Amino acid sequence: MMTHDELRARLRDASADLAPRDDLLKSLAEGHVRRHKRVRRGLIGGSVAATVLVAALLGTMLTGSPPPEQVDPARPTPAQILAKARAADEAAQNMIMCFGSGGGPQWRSNGFALRSENLGRVTQLGSDLIARPDGLRQVDHSRRTVLFTRMPGADAIRHLFVPGTGDARWWLREDAKVQSVSIGKSIHLTMSAPTGFTEYQVYLDLETFLIRQVVADGVLLNYWWLPATNENRERVAQSIPPDYRETVVGE
């Protein structure tokens, strides 16, 4: 077995004829500079992320509290979504709002409202509940009677569907809070409120932020939004036959 002294002697003899390159020191120096520049570029490129991470870690270490959640600027917050939904609903006051459990606004929809003019109508079996600026008219087609409740200046539409839930804005009222948000084919909000339905589901259109569907306590409401053309207005302001007997109550 070769000893350490013998190994050193052989290596010394084998390298006796090897001469160092004249530019060896220069080459080593240039290599060191290149490596240093690469490392420096990497540090600069990651400096922002590193600074945020270090600051968050230091904040956690010094205060004992978790670092603040990073917000994705491309994804709106629940508060922003709710604000957009309220703004969209307000902008749709001049549209005809249809609501019901059917498959579309052309059939089986049982509610219509033009909120900017305080006009609305809910259809039921053999009867209509009609809202106009001067009050509510309950029309019984089988008896050919009209019960007219005077409500001048009141928001008659809110009385069309107890407790006003037919009106889409009821689901977005000020005391309602967003509990969770999920986004797929629509914007799904799980919401809660201190009065009425304590928890309910609201589905918003991805582009317009208008309500498309609400599910509350097993009740399903679908919503459609139509332009206020003459044809669509007929759905709201249904005429009452002149031979119906009218009874007036209220003011």
Low-confidence sequence ranges:
42-63, 65-71
Identify the overall geometry: elongated
**Main sheet: which strands, in order across?**
7-8-9-10-11-1-2-3-4-5-6-12
* Global Rg: 37 Å
State the separation between the terminal residues, measured CA to CA.
120 Å
At the first level of CATH, the class of the largest domain is Mainly Beta
* Amount of beta strand: 25-35%
CATH homolog superfamily of the largest domain: Lipoprotein localisation LolA/LolB/LppX
Q: Figure out the total of helices.
A: 5
User: At CATH's second level, what is the architecture of the largest domain?
Assistant: Clam
Query: Could you give a short account of the major beta sheet?
Result: 12 strands, mixed
Average pLDDT level: 75
Helix content bin = 25-40%
Task: Assign the structural class, choosing from mainly alpha, mainly beta, alpha/beta, alpha+beta, or little secondary structure.
Answer: alpha+beta
In short:
Keywords: Membrane, Transmembrane, Transmembrane helix. Helix content is 28%, strand content 29%.
Looking at this protein, list some descriptive labels.
251 residues; alpha+beta; 2 domains; 12-stranded mixed β-sheet; 5 helices
Task: Give the arrangement of secondary structure elements.
Elements: H1 4-14, H2 24-45, H3 47-63, H4 78-91, E1 96-100, E2 111-114, E3 119-124, E4 127-132, E5 135-140, E6 145-150, E7 177-183, E8 187-192, E9 199-204, E10 211-216, E11 219-226, H5 230-236, E12 245-250
Parallel strand pairs: 6-12
Antiparallel strand pairs: 1-2, 1-11, 2-3, 3-4, 4-5, 5-6, 7-8, 8-9, 9-10, 10-11
Keywords: Membrane, Transmembrane, Transmembrane helix
Transmembrane segments: 42-62
